[in-house]
Write a structure and sequence with these properties.
single chain; alpha+beta; four-stranded antiparallel beta sheet; 8 strands; 25% strand
């Protein structure tokens, strides 16, 4: 009888003061899951608009952009500079000239091994150069102006 009474007391005690194992089992989670929203953002910006900005024979000032390009499609000629993103710009005031010149790569360069071997025999390679012909200064000398 005494043993029965001690069991009843232990069960009542466990009801009043729950053990640590019951706390771990009765953990409540969030009722709403926080799901991230996925939207297709971007793609609304206009294109980069590569290509010629000035045509053959146009007058340009120093600093004007002549052509924008992703790869080396046009090469800088006389009085033309090239930016870090292959943008060609004028270094002096003058008129724009486009020329095509025959291109012969060095015999053992990577271009010669990768490009020329794929071309048919007798094919000629050309490169397009953009140059600026500066405006002639008639009757004016910089040394005279400095004195």
């Amino acid at each position: 009888m005494a043993a029965l009474a001690s069991l009843m007391l232990k069960s009542r005690a466990s009801l009043l003061a729950p053990s640590h194992s019951c706390l771990l089992e009765s953990t409540r989670f969030a009722s709403k899951k926080s799901g991230g929203s996925s939207k297709n953002l971007g793609g609304k910006s206009p294109g980069r608009r590569f290509g010629f900005k000035k045509q053959d024979g146009d007058f340009v000032h120093a600093g004007n952009i002549l052509a924008t390009q992703r790869k080396m499609r046009y090469h800088p000629g006389g009085h033309v500079g090239m930016g870090t993103n292959n943008t060609l710009y004028a270094l002096e005031d003058g008129f724009v000239r486009f020329t095509k010149e025959v291109y012969i790569p060095a015999p053992r360069s990577p271009e010669a091994t990768s490009v020329i071997t794929k071309l048919p025999r007798g094919a000629v390679l050309y490169k397009t150069f953009i140059s600026v012909l500066p405006v002639k200064q008639e009757g004016r000398f910089k040394l005279v102006d400095l004195v």
